[in-house]
Amino acid sequence: MNDYKYDVAVIGAGPAGLAAAVAASKEGAGQVVLIERDFRLGGILEQCIHTGFGLKYFGEELSGPEYADRFIEILKGMNIDVLLDTMVLSIDGKEHVIHAANKTGAVAIKAKSIILSMGCREKTRAALCIPGSRPAGIYTAGTAQRLCNVQNHLVGKNIVILGSGDIGMIMARRMTLEGAKVNAVIEVMPYLAGLTRNRVQCLDDFGIPLYLSHTITDIDGKLRVKKVTVSEVDDRRQPIPGTEFDIECDTLLLSVGLIPENEVSKTAGVMLDDITKGPVVDNNMMTNVKGIFACGNVVHVNDLVDNVSTESELAGRAAARFAMANGEQSSSEIKVDPGSHVRYVVPQNVETKGLTDDVKMYFRVTDPMKNVRIKATCGDTVLYDAKKQFVNPGEIENIKVKGEQLQALNANDGNNITVTVATE
């Protein structure tokens, strides 16, 4: 067995892992290791050849590979070891030992602090239980993206896309530019699942129809998909009889949601949120297991990679400080709850002891709403209060609460912080 010892170990070298490793090293962590199961760094960014990355973080528009290269170049000049083609199998949360495997055999990595940044995976047809036959030509949108952009393989010529997630809409444009015909994007919800800008740039600009409040109720084809049956749905998202119509196609792409990759997190005893399916974290991105931090899409599915980088830098700095302090850390946490019209809030806890920095809280709303007031309160104390013209479940909202206000709260008075959204 190959044994290693590090101050900070980062699992996953996508946008979250790259930013976290760089931040940990800059913060002063002596030895940092970045563990990646693929043969190269960058994660999902390597297949995202479209532009739109980096507008907030770097102040310019970059493609996915360009965005990753910015961090990779920084990483090259730092004291960071990289283990590629290395699959993490489990984590001993008590001893902070990562058990992995690569071509050299079994690997054990002991670290003072660990950062989880494994990203997320796509939901497949099996998660949807769509009736019909099981022909070829059904892909998740991310798989189709990798085949097209990395392996130079066009998955089909006559496309239907189920789900209006960002990858699905981006692939609608990509398939069109490659000469395929995208007949429709079907979305079961009455609102867009992804960013509005992607609807404009990827669907509207190319004349691709979007059917909201519709779903696919049948797939027809023996060797390959021939057509799909689409039905309108009611308020309970149940198909309405008599509204069916067919769309001929040779390929169906699924863009129906992402699931944080937390199988390894569970082995460490990390508590997962019922809504996000990611780790419950505090404002330092630390989980319930002391010394284990999490960031990026493994915590909650983000809509912008720039936000992933910012959040991951926070985790990297906190993990470095924890390692340098040899795990000595007191705790005085206040729970953060989603209130009316809020689906979830990250972080789920705020560590108030010694807090000086402002705390960003990310959340998604349950429904599209106009002219709303966003509030964060703790008992009778108002921590945040502002108006916004429009909120949408497909786009993450965030608020910033002042550190001195949070530090003044009493963690023992029984009050939680609650984030609410209400119409004016």
List descriptors.
424 residues, alpha/beta, FAD/NAD(P)-binding domain, Immunoglobulin-like, seven-stranded mixed sheet, five-stranded parallel sheet, 35% strand
Average pLDDT confidence is 94
The main sheet comes to: 7 strands, mixed
Percent helix range: 10-25%
Structural class: alpha/beta
* Rg on CA atoms, Å: 22 Å
Count every helix, treating DSSP H or I runs of 4 or more residues as helices: 8
Count every beta strand, where a strand is a DSSP E run of 2 or more residues: 27
Oligomer class = single chain
What fold name goes in the CATH topology slot of the largest domain? Answer: FAD/NAD(P)-binding domain
How far is the N terminus from the C terminus? 62 Å
CATH superfamily of the largest domain: FAD/NAD(P)-binding domain
Shape call: globular
The CATH architecture assignment of the largest domain turns out to be: 3-Layer(bba) Sandwich
CATH class of the largest domain: Alpha Beta
Description:
The chain has 424 residues and is α/β, with parallel strands linked by helices. The chain folds into 3 domains: 1-122 and 258-325, FAD/NAD(P)-binding domain; 124-256, FAD/NAD(P)-binding domain; 332-424, Sandwich (Immunoglobulin-like). It has 8 helices and 27 strands. It has helices at residues 15-27, 64-76, 141-149, 166-177, 196-203, 263-267, 305-324, 403-407, and strands at residues 2-11, 32-35, 51-53, 62-63, 80-83, 87-92, 97-102, 105-116, 120-122, 138-140, 158-162, 181-187, 210-212, 214-220, 227-232, 245-248, 251-254, 258-260, 292-294, 333-338, 342-346, 349-351, 359-365, 369-378, 381-391, 397-401, 417-423. Helix 1 runs parallel beside helix 2 (64-76), helix 1 packs parallel to helix 7 and helix 4 runs parallel beside helix 5. The longest helix is centred in the C-terminal third of the chain and has 20 residues, at 305-324.
